[in-house]
């Protein structure tokens, strides 16, 4: 099982000081957080993609390429690549290039994003969001697997005898997760291709996440990729820790109360009771994260959001120390306990390459 962090790259004022970091400071902070993730033994760093203030990660492959040059083991991913408003040809080429630069330490998460105005900015219609996701990914899937592609669809100009370059490293495309909070069509899409399904697992109660994951697992088996338990599932989550739980609540409350996404709404206590957000001691984080298996089954990837809502870099790095030293080692051991032998590990370039050689690779 893989553990890591994901960032949405928001530029948010620190409510305790009133200071807003510059865009440069925030970008550099995201890099520092990724490097810290590798230092403390995490497996994955994932960045979002946004094209509007107050966010900075408009070019994920640029950032991940820079981080690739400064890391050795970290899997570099996205916590959404906008399949609706990006050209699938450009996605194919950008991530294949990143694959080569990072020696295969690359995967990505497809999604529609949560910012409506991005559609017209890139010449698309938000009312076609699902159809764009389906058609664009169908083309991307072919571009990575066919050396020469002839293609015609509704949303972009046709391709005749087109070859995407560079070709995927070792002939093996990056593993794809399809991320969705509420759209069953995206869970269906992930299942159809035998790809991974990622639920961000931050804003919704457990019963909703359970329904989405169960739908994906059922349809994964329907399409002949394996048993439902063999489907590849990832979950998000958000935590804030101090060794004393009261200290964690007291310190995080002002950030929670004005957070861009959930601020000015339910209280911190209400939100933590109804969603996977955990604010407390490392032991409380361990216990709540382990409970995810009760409704998601044995899954492959757990990512945490830790640098949101104006938290200063120093605080985030302290959180990563706690995560890497006190939380993840216990989670690795506990999640491995009684894990059925036929539940696959999280896909990597190495495992996909081995599978391709034996004819058993994912995303065939």
UniProtKB/TrEMBL annotation:
Q: Where is the Luciferase-like domain?
A: 1-295
Q: Which CDD domains match?
A: Tetrahydromethanopterin_reductase (cd01097)
Which SUPFAM superfamilies does the record associate with it?
A: Bacterial luciferase-like
Q: State where composition is biased (Low complexity).
A: 9-20
Under InterPro entries, the record lists: Bact_Lucif_Oxidored (IPR050766), LLM_FMN-dep_put (IPR023934), Luciferase-like_dom (IPR011251), Luciferase-like_sf (IPR036661)
- Entry superkingdom: Bacteria
- State the residue spans of region: Disordered: 1-21, 339-364
TM segments?
A: none
User: Which keywords are on file for this protein?
Assistant: Monooxygenase, Oxidoreductase
Q: Which PANTHER family match?
A: BLR5498 PROTEIN, LUCIFERASE-LIKE MONOOXYGENASE
- The name under which this protein is listed is LLM class flavin-dependent oxidoreductase
One matching Pfam family, short form? Bac_luciferase
């Amino acid at each position: 099982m893989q553990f890591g962090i994901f960032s949405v790259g928001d530029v948010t004022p620190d409510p305790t000081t009133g200071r807003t970091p510059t865009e440069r400071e925030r970008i550099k902070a995201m890099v520092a957080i990724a490097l810290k993730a590798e230092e403390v033994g995490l497996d994955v760093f994932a960045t979002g993609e946004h094209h509007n203030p107050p966010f900075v990660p408009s070019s994920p492959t640029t950032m991940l390429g820079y981080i690739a040059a400064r890391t050795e083991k970290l899997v570099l991913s996205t916590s959404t690549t906008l399949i609706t408003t990006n050209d699938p040809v450009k996605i194919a080429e950008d991530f294949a290039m990143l694959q080569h630069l990072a020696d295969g330490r690359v995967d990505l998460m497809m999604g529609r994003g949560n910012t409506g105005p991005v559609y017209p900015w890139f010449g698309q219609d938000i009312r076609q969001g699902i159809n764009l996701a389906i058609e664009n990914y169908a083309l991307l899937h072919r571009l990575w697997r066919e050396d020469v592609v002839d293609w015609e669809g509704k949303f972009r100009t046709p391709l005749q005898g087109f070859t995407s370059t560079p070709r995927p490293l070792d002939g093996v495309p990056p593993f794809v997760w399809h991320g969705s909070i509420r759209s069953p069509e995206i869970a269906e899409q992930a299942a159809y291709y035998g790809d991974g399904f990622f639920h961000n697992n931050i804003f919704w109660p457990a019963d909703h996440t359970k329904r989405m994951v169960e739908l994906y697992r059922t349809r994964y088996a329907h399409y002949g990729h394996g048993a439902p338990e063999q489907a590849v599932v990832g979950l998000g989550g958000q935590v804030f820790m101090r060794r004393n739980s009261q200290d964690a609540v007291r310190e995080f409350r002002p950030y929670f109360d004005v957070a861009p996404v959930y601020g000015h709404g339910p209280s911190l206590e209400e939100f933590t009771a109804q969603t996977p957000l955990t604010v407390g001691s490392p032991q409380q984080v361990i216990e709540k994260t382990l409970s995810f298996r009760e409704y998601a089954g044995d899954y492959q990837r757990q990512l945490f959001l830790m640098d949101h809502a104006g938290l200063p870099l120093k605080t985030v790095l302290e959180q990563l120390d706690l995560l890497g030293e006190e939380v993840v080692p216990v989670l690795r051991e506990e999640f491995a306990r009684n894990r059925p032998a036929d539940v696959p590990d999280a896909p990597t370039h190495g495992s996909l390459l081995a599978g391709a050689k034996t004819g058993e690779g994912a995303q065939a």
